[in-house]
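#onboarding

Welcome to the new folks! Below is a worked example of what a typical request in this channel looks like: someone posts a single protein sequence, and someone else replies with the predicted structure as tokens. Don't worry about understanding the tokens yet, we'll cover that in week two.

Example request:
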Amino acid sequence: MSQAIRRGPSVLGLLVLALLLGPASVSQPQGRILFVNTADPSCSGQSPCYTSIQAAVDAAQGGG
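Example response:
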């Protein structure tokens, strides 16, 4: 009296399927860092350095 036991998908099979169908890259592109310092025009050696937030926003929007 043998009975066939139905098994669901294996964990390994699901992992392989997820890797095949998942995104090729999970890293996100990162934006530039613009430094702002109203007291120190060199931003302690950081670059690019802006003397106002608006100047940094303008540069970011213009790509500069």
